[in-house]
Hints:
Layout: H1 16-25, E1 28-33, H2 35-38, H3 48-63, E2 67-72, H4 75-90, H5 106-126, E3 132-137, H6 140-143, H7 145-160, E4 164-169, H8 192-202, E5 207-212, E6 232-233, H9 255-266, E7 271-276, H10 282-287, E8 294-296
Amino acid sequence: MANASCFSRSLTTSPLSDVLNEVASTERVVLKLGTAVLTRGDEHGIALGRLASIVEQAAEIQNSGRNVILVTSGSVGFGKMLLREQKMMSTPMRGIGRGKEWSPDARAAAAVGQPSLMALYSSMFAQYGLSCAQVLVTQNDFDRATSQNNLSATMEELLRLNIIPLVNENDVMSDQPSADGDIKGTISLKDNDSLAAMLAIQFHAKAMICLSDVDGVFTAHPDTPGARLLKSYNPDHVGDTVQFGRKSSVGRGGMEAKLGAALYAARKGVHVIIANGFAPNVVLDVAQGKGVGTLISTAVAPDEAEAE
């Protein structure tokens, strides 16, 4: 379970514009990319153009003197594409198209996809004079004091050296998460949404950007007539005014997982923004405090937490 220590949460509230200015000035930013953002529409590969744009924006933030911690999905999806290609190449022509469609094992896919994904990120960030580093974690790395200290020391050194940590759950070694295994007031590593929250808290990142395939948090499912996008959401002052959408077909989480992790981080003093990773320039717009997506924070004034 995540370490509860963090910078203190705000005991007073401020106008939305003031909180967005604080997002724009924070030195450390956790950027979480969901599988739906990284993969193509046919779910058979990485959306290279979209990823290249996000990397360019993250590099601009890093080169401005701020630190980006990138939590990235995609290793399983990338690995499944590579394994399908390999199987197709090794299958005799007469056997192609016959029988049931083969689905690669997720752990094997992660093992194949992770180095390929890292190589892709490395080549993209190198275009902007930046290096990145692979950091794979499991729940044990947050539970055991020795492992947590090692993780902290390594991450802090990478940030000091201006290297972008690319953090992902070690899908090869991780156990399947328990859906209801958390004690009240804690969070465990279930998916990359919870991982991003745990990292933001542990490494004192005041801003956490979660990119997905939705514009933010709505008062109902976005397809529901009358559903409205929330510009901000203060969990301390707003009641049960949101409903959760459907889970992405390519990711482990969904809007419920995202909002659950966001609320946990917000209550520890992190400003969380859920935004659409398909929108142009979204990373810079969020990081510059332009009010994109939904801001979730205990610091925003309650009268600002109204639907757009």
